[in-house]
Amino acid sequence: MGRRKKNLINGKLWAYTAITRAPGKFIVAICGEGEGGYRPLPEDSDCGGDYESELAAERTAKKLNDRLGLTEAEIRRIVLSTMPRTRRVV
């Protein structure tokens, strides 16, 4: 439970993820469980701004998530919960 407390914002779990901003430009963003979309880290923060490779952005996101003690499964669940669900019309 201690790990969960430091990982709550407004009562929701959150995680960091790498996002493609534009071709060849990547950023690190924060995702709140069940909230739509993501929030880019501020450009003037230590980990904000553009990364020149997806791998560099992913490494930074992983380092930040490791500090929170998140497992890969938890990160995936949180990030996927922010994506819109599409409905298939038959």
Characterise this structure:
With about 90 residues, this protein is α+β, with helices and mostly antiparallel strands. It has one domain (about 1-80). The protein has helices at about 1-5, 55-70, 70-80, and strands at about 10, 10-20, 25-30, 40. The protein has a four-stranded antiparallel β-sheet with strand order 1-2-3-4. Strand 1 and strand 2 (about 10-20) form a beta hairpin. It is globular. The N and C termini lie far apart (about 45 Å). About 25% of the residues are buried. The mean pLDDT is about 85.
Number of strands: 4
Relative helix content: 25-40%
* Distinct helical segment count: 3
Class per helix and strand makeup: alpha+beta
Taking the sheet with the most strands, its summary is: 4 strands, antiparallel
Taken as a percent bin, the fraction of beta residues is 25-35%
Features:
90 residues; alpha+beta; 4-stranded antiparallel β-sheet; 4 strands; 26% strand
Spell out the blueprint of helices and strands:
Blueprint: H1 2-5, E1 8-9, E2 12-22, E3 25-32, E4 39-40, H2 54-68, H3 72-80
Antiparallel strand pairs: 1-2, 2-3, 3-4
Give a brief rundown of this model.
The chain is an alpha+beta fold and 90 residues long.
